[in-house]
Design goal:
The protein is mostly helical. The chain is about 50% helix and about 0% strand.
């Protein structure tokens, strides 16, 4: 298998996407990556050729050079198997789906917000509204006249009187 490496990484594009809090980690990773790539590129892609005839003339031990030559030529260092690209591709597809869903949700929300904004822009100004106009515009937000309430006059912000709390008994003071 041939040696493969990514020849060009757009580090500037990556740096633009990294939050300020992660810049130090990003720069450390970039430095390690650059050092690894330098070390890898410093070595030749194929094993160097050896002049076996020279060693046969020089070394007098019979069969030693032939043995080394046979072992050297049989030497095969396997290239590491890629176990991660498929997982990364699947994760990328899932992330793309999540991004598409988020964009759709954001677009739907924008439609709702624009509809609300349009309603507010087309409404009678609050300073010119009567209570009847307000009650018509905001049916759940009008001031209740059947109970005493406190601002902002919504059900979830009102205190429940002690007599309405289940299990509450007033203590008599003697």
């Amino acid at each position: 298998m041939a040696r493969r490496a990514i020849k060009a990484i757009n580090w500037n594009a990556l740096a633009e996407r990294i939050p300020e809090t992660e810049k130090a980690s990003f720069l450390a990773f970039k430095s390690k990556s650059d050092k690894y790539l330098q070390r890898m590129m410093a070595n030749p892609e194929t094993a160097p050729q050896i002049d076996w005839a020279y060693y046969r003339k020089t070394i007098t031990i019979p069969g030693l050079v032939d043995k080394f030559q046979k072992e050297y030529e049989a030497l095969s260092i396997p290239y590491p198997k890629d176990k991660y690209t498929a997982a990364i591709d699947i994760e990328q597809q899932e992330t793309d789906k999540m991004i598409a869903e988020f964009i759709q949700q954001s677009d739907d929300y924008l439609v709702e917000v624009n509809a609300s904004l349009s309603k507010i822009k087309n409404m009678i100004p609050f300073a010119e509204m009567t209570m009847d106009d307000y009650t018509e515009a905001f049916p759940t937000g009008f001031l209740r006249t059947d109970k005493d309430t406190t601002w902002p006059h919504t059900d979830d912000t009102q205190e429940i009187p002690d007599e309405e709390v289940p299990g509450h008994k007033e203590k008599s003071s003697h």
